[in-house]
Each structure stands twice: as structure tokens, then as C-alpha cells.
Amino acid sequence: MHCLLWMLIVSVAVALDNGLIKTPPMGWLHWERFRCNTDCKSFPNDCISENLFRAMADRMVSDGYLAAGYNYVTMDDCWLAKTRDAKGRLQPDPQRFPNGMKALADYIHSKNLKFGIYEDIGTKTCAGYPGSEFYMQLDAQTFADWTVDYLKFDGCNYNPDGYRDGYPPMAFFLNMTGRPIALGCEYALYQRGSGYKPDYNGQAAACNLARNFDDIDDSWDSVKSVIEFYGKNELDFASVAGPGYFNDPDELVIGNFGLSYDQERVQMAVWSILAAPLLMSVDLRNIRPESKAILQSKRAIAVNQDPLGIQGRLMNKIGDVELWRKPIVPNGSCAFALVNMGTAVPVKVSIVMSDLGLSNISGYNVTEVFDGTYLGIYKPSSVLSVSVNPTGVFFAQAIAIQ
Question: Which of 178, 148, 137 is nearest to 79 (CA)?
Fold first, then answer.
């Protein structure tokens, strides 16, 4: 009977179709900026507490992020108490979340935002708090009772032999609750780290989004390493992305301390090309106006949220300059980015539009994405010449003339 139930769970879960995440999710996630800061005495405004999440929710509404499309407020590790309650249920730290998770979810929902939460497939989370191993059904129901909208499900402290079969049951139990809860996974990442071949197809079938590479840090070297990994496209994992499932290169660190203005534009451009989740990790109470403008770029967000949901790819390299391309609507159109990975001087780059796979004889209306400059009509044989700053980007869209 136990084996029969397990087969049922796996067979249902690997056909996950919960109707969620038809375009990449957008929102705010605490980890990169605030980490596991639980010292509310020394850092009352920055510790992982209900006050922090309420403050970010307020800013998302008042400062235009919700209007731009960012609608998830999500907590990462370190929200938990060190033990489960007397009935075995997860519970938040009582000092940092005195009103409980349901009250916090209600507050976030009252702002027309969605509430995301973190847990781990193993015995403990990465930071050592109670994990969901042996408690998946109970935890799924607990999240539903708290009216959670999204679960980030990490992969620490778990038998590496079990990742492939360990994640689908959580998808099954979340669906059983009757509440639509999107599921974010990390098992291909942990499979690779444990010496196993990453199962990208299985991950896409069981999850709505998934991390495949290292945690991002607030530095150009870190952002560059993520771009390089996605450029290599290991085992063609880009092909499994689309409405209902998206690969997640990790948080946007725009507005923090480690990136220049040009580098912030690179991250926004490449994440948009990748159809990546746009999850900001920044103190929205203290953000530079130019960084806010990048995050709220209507044209960049439109590329990211394109209904085709196709993950863009690295097409070519011209010296230090990478050419990235993403198909978008209307049919035959694309967004493209020329990313200068060099650090020395601006580079002048010339490309023939047909190098982008563009063949519409009527031509294309080409517009720069960030500032909206209209560059004109380009035919497939036309040459586009631009100058790209060191660790900078030229980001544009070519819309097919019908």
C-alpha cells in the first residue's frame, strides 16, 4: 500500500500543471540583501522580522513597484523558530514574528501583493532551522492555512540520492491543499553539487521555477559567473523553460553596493532576455533613483514578461562582446542584448540583423529598451553599429513589420 501511494504521488506530481507562473514571477526576496540577520536588538530595521516584510510591502505599493508588476513579497531562510510546535507544525520565531504568519500574510494580501515563504526538503534548512523531510504533507497544509502563494523549497541536509524523487511529493501535497501555491525548487543545483547528472526535465515537470546555479552575491564577479553559466546552457536546460516553469538565475542585486550603473543595466537586460524571475533583493527604503528606474523599466519588464515565455540564449561572441537573443511577440520579433564582458574601454560593435535570425523582408522597427530611443527601420541585410561600455550593455528590441 505504501509503494502504491508513493507511485501515485510521483505519477501525479511529475505531471504538475497547477495553472500558475505563466510568466516569470516578479517581486522581492530578502536573502541577498538581509541574509540571516536575526539580531533585532542591534538591527531593528534590518533583521528578519514581520516589520521588515511589512515595510517592504508598503514600499512596493507606494513606490510604484507593484504598478510595474512586482507582486511577490517572499521570505527566505531564518524566519522559523528552532523547533516545531506541540502538534509538529512549523512556527515562526515568536519574538520576531509575534503576530504569526497568517497575520503577516493578511497584511501583504491587503496590499494586493502575494506572500512567499521558504522551507527545505531536508531535515534542517541551510541555516539549521526545522526542515520538511518527513513533514511534507503537514507543512503543505500549514502553508495553505497561512494563505501562502509561493514556496521556495531549498535542498540542504538531504540524501543526494533522493532529489529526483524527493521534490515531486511536495508538489503533490501542495496541490492537495486546494490552494494555488507555486513551487520553486533547487534539485538540479544540488544534484550537480553532489556529482549527479542534473535532471532538468524532471525538475521542470515537478516545479514552477528552479535555481540551477550558485547563490548570487552583490558583486560583478558573481553576476558575471551566473551569466557565463546560463551562456553555456548545460544539457540545454533553456529548452525546458516556458509558461508554467522558468529557470531562476537568482535575485536581482540592483540598487545595492557591488554593481556600477552599467553593470546594473547588464543584469536587468540579461535577466529579461532569460525570461528569469525578477526577484529584487534590495532595501527599498534606501535605493538610488537610477537603480529604481532600471528595476521599473517598462520595456525591459515587457521583454521579461513576454507571453511566449521563451528563455533567451547566447548566440555568439565578438571578442569580449556577447550577443544574446530572445524571441518575443509579435511573431518573428526579438529582443537582443550586446553585453561587453571586458573591463578596459568601450567597444564598437557592428552586426548584420540577419545575425539575429531575422528574415522578415518588410523589416523591423528597432528601439533601445532602457531609454526608448527609436533607431529606425532595419532590414535583414542592414548593419547596426553601437558602442558598448565596459561591463555594459546595449539592449534593444526588433519588432517585425507586418
Answer: 148
Catalytic residue list contains 154:
yes
DSSP H or E stretch at residue 67: helix 65-68
Q: Which residues of 359-392 are buried (b: 16+ CB within 10 A; e: fewer)?
A: ebeebbebbebbeeeeeeebbbebebebebbbbb
Burial class (CB in 10 A: 0-12, 13-18, 19+), 30: buried
Q: Tell me: the pLDDT tens digits for 206-219?
A: 999 999 999 999 99
Contact between 296 and 68 (Cβ < 8 Å): yes
Distance CA 120, CA 281 (A): 20
Question: With 60 as the cut, is the pLDDT of residue 10 above it?
Answer: no
CA 130 to chain centre: 24
- Active-site residue among 154, 218, 248, 283? 154
Those residues whose C-beta lies under 8 Å from the C-beta of residue 228, and which sit 6 or more positions away, are none
Q: Three-class SS of residue 68?
A: helix
- Name the DSSP class of 114: E
Radius of gyration of the chain (CA): 21
Question: Quick count: other Cβ atoms within 10 Å of Cβ 289?
Answer: 7
99 pLDDT above the threshold of 50: yes
> What is the rounded average pLDDT of the residues 256-272?
99
335, with CB counted inside 10 A (0-12, 13-18, 19+), is: buried
Under 8 Å between Cβ of 141 and 170: no
Cis bond upstream, residue 330 (ω within 30): yes
Q: Considering 39, 85, 161, 215, which one is annotated as catalytic?
A: 215
Q: What is the pLDDT of residue 16?
A: 57
Helix (H) / strand (E) containing 187: helix 187-193
Query: What is the DSSP track for 259-328?
Result: --HHHHHHHHHHHHHTT--EEE-S-TTS--HHHHHHHT-HHHHHHHT-TT-PPPEEEEEETTEEEEEEEE
Residue in this structure with the C-alpha cell 541577498, named with its chain if needed: 32
Q: β-strands 321-328, 313-318: how paired?
A: antiparallel
